[in-house]
From TrEMBL:
The active site is at 141. It comes from Streptomyces beihaiensis. GO terms for molecular function: metallopeptidase activity. The chain crosses the membrane at residues 12-34, 40-57, 150-171, 186-207. The gene is htpX. This is Protease HtpX homolog.
């Protein structure tokens, strides 16, 4: 069933192209390793099994890692109420609702499809945002589910693990395979490492480019659904500002989930931010929301101008 979230054909096209290119990269990688090492079938099987497990159980893995717990409407009536209203407006299945008891102000959505999705918010976010700001953040996360980019980014992000597993297998099999290694063996290991580095770099750039665009798409979809882009901008500014007050060690712990968060826990350095960041800059997101606000004729107070 198609939701009422505004479709984004550019996002769909980018997801298809990214997965196609990643597929080509990894097919070439596996073929190269098979030619070089003669014995990588076991690693391919193991990596494939792990990929399936990651895809099938991504919601449980993410909740466990972020210390999230599924909550009922009786436990979190306001949170459930906001999600109920948004799902009714968007005409989409209601995901499971979870809360992570962390001071880090953030939210994320995960799951392989709309029927197996989870939207999780932290207690730090619930404590800091007003109800309409929370609505904007949750609409952003629900749009990820509606656009199906959660599943795509889950698969794409995990593919990088395959390269690491295969290289480790190759390295240790040669390392502990005996002391009588000739120059050919050393050359093979060197080529494997170079191929792995190239695959990782290409994958990283493709995934980060997709991740940045999907955040802009989710901002736009949420703003159009709620009709309050300025409120979403307010929530984004508040969350990003308060993130700076969280201890660095807590931010580093959560950094692995940057690609899934509403706002990144830690940003890349200025020189690398454009290429390696999982999110567009705060300024870019605020600017885009400002354009949507003008498009909708939004006036002060976050309500669309209906006087025309």
């Amino acid at each position: 069933m198609r939701s009422r979230f505004e479709p984004d054909r550019q996002l769909t096209a980018r997801m298809v192209v990214t997965m196609f290119l990643l597929g080509l990269v990894y097919v070439a990688f596996v073929a190269a390793l098979i030619a070089l090492l003669k014995s990588v079938a076991l690693v391919v099987v193991i990596a494939g099994a792990l990929l399936i497990a990651q895809f099938w159980y991504s919601d449980r893995i993410a909740l466990y890692a972020m210390r999230g717990q599924i909550v009922t409407a009786e436990e979190e009536p306001e949170l459930h109420g906001v999600i109920d209203r948004l799902c009714a407006t968007a005409d989409m299945p209601k995901p499971r609702v979870a809360v992570s008891h962390m001071d880090l102000p953030n939210a994320f959505a995960t799951g392989r499809n709309a029927d197996h999705a989870v939207v999780c918010v932290t207690t730090g976010l619930l404590r800091r945002l007003e109800t309409d700001e929370l609505e904007g953040v949750l609409a952003h996360e629900l749009s990820h589910v509606a656009h199906r980019d959660v599943a795509v980014i889950t698969i794409a992000s995990f593919l990088g693990v395959i390269a690491g597993l295969m290289v480790r297998f190759a390295f240790y099999s040669q390392l502990f395979g005996g002391r009588n290694r000739d120059q050919n063996t050393a050359a093979v290991i060197g080529v494997v490492m170079l191929v792995s580095a190239a695959v990782y770099a290409i994958s990283l750039l493709l995934i980060r480019a997709l991740s940045r665009y999907r955040e802009l798409a989710a901002d736009r979809a949420a703003a159009m659904l709620t009709g309050k882009p300025s409120v979403l901008a307010s929530a984004l500014t508040k969350v990003s500002g308060d993130m700076a007050r969280i201890p660095t060690k807590d931010l580093r712990t959560a950094q692995a989930f940057n690609a899934f968060f509403f706002a990144p826990a830690l940003k890349a350095g200025d020189a690398l931010q454009g290429l390696l960041s999982t999110h567009p800059s705060l300024e870019r997101r605020i600017e885009e929301l400002g354009k949507i606000s003008a498009q909708l004729g939004e006036v002060a107070g976050g309500e669309p101008d209906t006087t025309a």
